[in-house]
Amino acid sequence: MSDHYAVLGVPRDAGPDEIKRAYRKMARKLHPDVNDGPEAAEQFKAVSQAYDVLSNPEKRRMYDLGGDPSASGGGFGPGFGFSDIFETFFGQQGAGGGRGPASRQRPGQDALIRMEIDLREAVFGGERELALETAVVCSTCQGTCCRPGTSPATCGTCGGRGQVQRMARSFLGQVMTTAPCHTCGGYGTVIPDPCLECSGEGRVRSRKTITIRVPPGVDTGTRIQLAGQGEVGRGGGPAGDLYVEIVERPHDTFVRRGDDLHCTVSVPMTAAALGTELRLQTLDGPETIDLMPGTQPGTVHQLRSYGVQHLRSPGRGDLHVHIDVTVATRLDEEQEDLLQRLAELRGETRPSGRLATNHSGVFGKLKERLAGR
After folding, report:
1. How confident is the model at residue 95 (pLDDT cuts 50, 70, 90)?
2. Is residue 85 predicted with pLDDT exceeding 80?
3. What band does 78 get if pLDDT is binned at 50, 70 and 90?
4. First-to-last C-alpha distance (Å) of the chain
5. Strand pairing partners for 180?
6. Which residues contact 50 (CB under 8 A, 6 or more apart)?
């Protein structure tokens, strides 16, 4: 089975228009009526078979999966009518297939901007005012492209049809071909007095401010679509969409992992040994954590539903509070005596330094975390 993409000279992700253009180009070169070379007929047959498959979505899907849906026989592909034959050989619409004048209005382009938010906005959502520069309808001509008080005039070359016809010779004999009017560009009208404000485009660049609602749960990379807030098209055409991509700034205290938040609280070794009550300022306000006597470094307290709101489902993530026990480094004489006395009472003046097992101690906990336990 031949490689249809290679036959047409297009990549495997080529769109329908690209495939059709490639076929027309090769058909004009290889058709037996214009090329009587010894290999032209076979090449034209291969090109036609390739187009027959790749121009049909179902056949193309089957072919991409390794099947062979090629139709036998050459000729023009499916949906390639008589008027398309003229377009293939002359690059224009054939007689009797006039499309009429084109509209000056064109759809506007979509736009993408990035907006920074802080963690609090990501957790609870909110509203932001966003200033941007974009194309808007010209306030002077209101998108008509004409100077106020004037209007487009019918094209004298094509009579308002937007197309002109001419006779041409081909292998089929004398044919009438149709092409866009070179005077009006296919619009059927000309603008004798363009608007000075927009130079006849019907739109101008302007700065505007819009209000955007930030839903709770967004994260870096989340895109918010604002329909009709993109650029206005030429001739006052409909505006495209605006996409706002979120960039979340790092927080000084909390680290986000998915919808969970993490923070670290340092406590002195005496508080960890004796137990204490910690006051913690969360994004929801102050909260209290009870530390049990003998709290070890690396202990994690979980505050449920104090994390980030889930973007596409109800509920929130959790807040994980990691305890870091700090050891005193500067002791006065009295403090040193007290610690010495405590060490003697606990029999720890000369600790043995026993090796911990694989599943205990700092390295064991690190190993468990890396293993996803």
Report:
1. very low
2. no
3. very low
4. 52
5. 163
6. 2, 4, 5, 7, 8, 23
| CB count in 10 Å sphere of residue 274 | 13
Per DSSP, the residues of 125-170 read -EEEEEEEEEEEE-TTTTTS-B-TT---EE-TTTTTSSEEEEEEEE
**pLDDT bucket at 349, cuts 50 / 70 / 90:** confident
Alpha helices per DSSP H over 36-81: 40-54, 57-64
Asked whether this chain's domains 4-80 and 255-370 adopt the same fold, the reply is no
Would you place residue 330 in the very low, low, confident or very high pLDDT band (cuts 50, 70, 90)? Answer: confident
Residues 6+ apart with CB under 8 A from 183: 155, 156, 157, 158, 190
Element (H, E) at 23: helix 16-30
Give the homologous superfamily in CATH for domain 98-249: Urease metallochaperone UreE, N-terminal domain (2.60.260.20)
Query: Which residue type is seen at 152?
Result: P
Give pLDDT, residue 92: 45
- Give the residue extent of every domain in the chain: 4-80, 98-249, 255-370
Query: How many beta carbons lie within 10 A of that of residue 301, not counting itself?
Result: 17
255-370: CATH topology is HSP40/DNAj peptide-binding domain (2.60.260)
Q: Which CATH class is domain 4-80?
A: mainly alpha
